[in-house]
Design a protein that fits this description.
Layout: E1 6-11, H1 15-27, E2 33-38, H2 41-49, E3 55-59, E4 61-62, E5 65-66, H3 67-76, E6 83-87, H4 92-101, E7 105-108, H5 114-153, E8 164-171, E9 179-185, E10 190-198, H6 202-227, H7 236-253, E11 258-266, E12 271-277, E13 282-285, E14 292-295, E15 313-316, E16 322-326, H8 328-331, H9 342-352, H10 358-373, E17 382-389, E18 399-406, H11 412-425, H12 433-454, E19 462-470, E20 473-480, H13 503-511, E21 514-519, E22 525-532, H14 536-539
Parallel strand pairs: 1-2, 1-3, 3-6, 6-7
Antiparallel strand pairs: 4-5, 8-17, 9-10, 10-11, 11-12, 12-15, 13-14, 13-16, 16-17, 18-19, 19-20, 20-22, 21-22
């Protein structure tokens, strides 16, 4: 026995057929039904769109309109109830047309009785329940796919780049799409940006995008190892060629292709090397002149031609220049009248908003394309990645040096001497004795805590220390692979001896001007200590003594 009556909507212009249907429903044993009757096409369509019924019975003839038209319009408007089509004659073409329109079943008047009507309603409702369950499962899969995509395909750009800042945004036309990007950093001066777009949409495109990004990562790893003996990094054209070789046959077999732009930024040389594999032209804003140019290569997408030879292009840049990478969904956004957004609008937007933060500018690009498309929304994925070069010498150290030690107390002395030497010989101006001693103490305290707590006393692990000198300050950054540590949970030390612990973080905080703990993109613990130069007047020393920067 059902919990509540089944709500039936009958759209029928013949009162006799209404009375007959009502009798059939009342004759059904075990189940009860509540029926609403409407007699015109217009009132029937309005009632169906309310989604207030469990099942709908629709007559074929409704004045000058037909039940087939009503089914199509109701389903298009979001009607969820299963529809059973009623007709006075047996016609296979009408039967087929009803099924194609979306009807759940087809009944012939004159052959209907209480049993056949109950069976049709029951089967239609069960089919609707199964379809709802499948839709919910599919929605969950899409949601999971979207989370996987945001985690694996649309990773966050590195926030601590020196010499550049990156902003990014992606708006899928569905929850899962074929757009992807990647960031690969080699050292403080060189990093790669990858932006790609797989033909198609949905989960299949996302799977190919994941494979493409994985192949790029694998190609970089193998080429870096292979070229280490030559003392150089792989060029972008070598990386893309390796990915092309590993994927093109499979892409052809899948009848798919991948467009991408792979760019290498060298902030020391102020140049970008890039391979354009059929991707959208990169927008380059020249800060010194306000001009906007388009960068374009001449290679085909991956999966087009097995013997394609990929060649890189070279582009120099100046401080505050901007590079905008994007997918075709941006420039091919279509207004209701059919007009495309186009690259000229994109250039004008970048020029007019060149003072904006990269994240904000990327948002503005996608928002503008979305607004241009209007109520119809996205027909393709929107992806935008903005790279802004730093101002002249902004964020670049004047000197850097590093060392690596094992997690043994005996090696801490070498680390202390290294910090002392760097502060006195490489900082500009050289740190005073008191400032140097404070930074040495902070590094020593941090290293001791890493040995005892992060590595749990293990003596065969590694600890890296990188020193950087900036005008007026010195930065010491320590990295280890030990247990993560949240210094914000450490209570202040009890100086009366009533409680142990807390002194390490306290000593470090008192010895430096700023410190920050974070986990980097490799999963390492990183502690960044900053000591600023206070000046000769405050310390009574010659703060302008020249430092040896050789």
């Amino acid at each position: 026995m059902q919990d509540r009556p089944t709500r039936v909507l009958l759209i029928e212009d013949d009162p006799d057929d209404y009375a007959l249907t009502k009798d059939f429903l009342s004759d059904i044993e075990d189940d009860t039904y509540e029926m609403e009757w409407v007699s015109t096409f217009e009132t029937g369509l309005e009632a169906a769109q309310r989604n207030a019924h469990d099942v709908i019975l629709v007559d074929f003839r409704l004045g000058e309109r037909t039940g087939l038209e009503l089914i199509r319009e109701a389903l298009k408007a979001g009607c969820r109830a299963p529809v059973i089509f009623l007709t006075g004659q047996r016609d296979r073409e009408i039967d087929r047309a009803a099924m194609q329109a979306g009807a759940a079943d087809y009944l012939i008047k004159g052959r209907i009785d209480a049993s056949s009507l109950e069976r049709s309603i029951r089967y239609s409702l069960e089919r609707r329940r199964h379809m709802d369950a499948l839709e919910r499962a599919h929605a969950r899969e899409i949601e999971i796919g979207a989370r996987i995509q945001s985690t694996l395909l649309l990773t966050q750009p590195p926030a601590d780049l020196q010499g550049a800042k990156i902003g990014s945004v992606s708006l899928p036309s569905r929850k899962v799409d074929g757009d992807f990007w990647g960031f690969f950093r080699y050292d403080r001066d060189r990093f790669d940006v990858l932006v790609g777009d797989v033909m198609g949409k949905g989960v299949p495109a996302a799977l190919i995008a994941a494979a493409s990004k994985s192949q790029c990562q694998d190609a970089i790893r193998r080429l870096v190892l292979r070229l280490a003996e030559y003392g150089r990094l792989p060029d972008p054209e070598e990386i893309v060629s390796a990915v092309h070789f590993s994927m093109t046959k499979q892409l052809c077999a899948l009848d798919s292709f991948v467009t991408l732009c792979y760019a290498r930024f060298d902030t020391a040389k102020r140049e970008m090397l890039f391979v354009d594999a059929g991707h959208m032209r990169t927008v380059h804003y020249h800060a010194s002149t306000g001009a906007v140019s388009l960068l374009e290569g001449h290679n085909l997408p991956l999966g087009f031609a097995e013997h394609e030879m990929y060649a890189q292009c070279r582009q120099t840049f100046e401080p505050n220049d901007i590079f905008v990478f994007y997918s075709d969904g941006v420039t091919e956004a279509r207004a209701p009248d059919g007009e495309l957004y186009g690259v000229e609008r994109l250039q004008n937007l970048v020029r007019a908003n060149a003072d904006k933060d990269p994240d904000r500018l990327a948002d503005m690009v996608c928002d503008a394309a979305l607004a241009f498309a209007g109520p119809s929304g996205l027909s393709d994925d929107l992806t935008c990645l903005v790279v802004r070069m730093a101002a002249d010498d902004e964020g670049r150290p004047i000197y850097r040096a590093g060392m690596e030690v094992h997690s043994t107390p005996q090696e801490l002395d070498a680390m202390r001497r290294f910090v002392d030497w760097f502060c006195k010989e490489r900082a500009r101006p050289a740190l005073a004795e008191a400032e140097t001693n404070a930074l040495v103490l902070a590094v020593n305290e941090a290293a001791s805590n890493i040995l005892d707590h992060a590595y749990w006393g293990a003596r065969d692990r590694r600890l890296q220390l990188n020193m950087e000198a900036y005008p007026g300050s010195v930065v010491a950054e320590m990295s280890d692979w030990g247990q993560p540590f949240d210094h914000t949970t450490v209570e202040p030390p009890a100086f009366d001896g009533s409680r142990e612990g807390g002194f390490g973080v306290y000593i470090i905080s008192q010895c430096v001007d700023d410190f920050r703990y974070y986990r980097d993109d490799l999963g390492r613990n990183c502690l960044r200590l900053v000591k600023r130069f206070r000046g000769a007047d405050e310390l009574g020393q010659d703060a302008n003594a020249p430092a040896d920067l050789s």
